[in-house]
Amino acid sequence: MPAYLGELGQAFTLTLLANERMPKTAMWGERAMLDWPLTMALHWPSAEVPKLMYISGLGKARDYESDILAEYKERSLQLLREAGQTNSLVAQLAPLVWKMFGMQDEFQAHMRNLPSDASPTYTTWLDRVGE
Fold it and tell me: Which of 10, 31, 68, 110 is most buried, judged by most C-beta within 10 A?
């Protein structure tokens, strides 16, 4: 529980940055804040929440234009590969991760190859991600 509560505090800080409620200059320990949920996900591989928190943190880092976001690309793609191998719901967030890292080709290929029975909710979400 302490690891999770610590991450909640860090996620709140990233949210404040992403929503321009605090300046980037007031933040310290950005790598630690982005690494924390990834460390939790690696420590508890069957737990979905740390993986979701990790991707959420990356999304916030993209919103506040983090200078270190690119450092997380390979680790994020590895997390997605592992999620796909274990049939984790987190694998469905791959399009969001691709967009965060400017992987337009992968995103567009996914959009072109959607099954005809894809959920309308999922396709609406994909449209929002693509904007």
Answer: 10
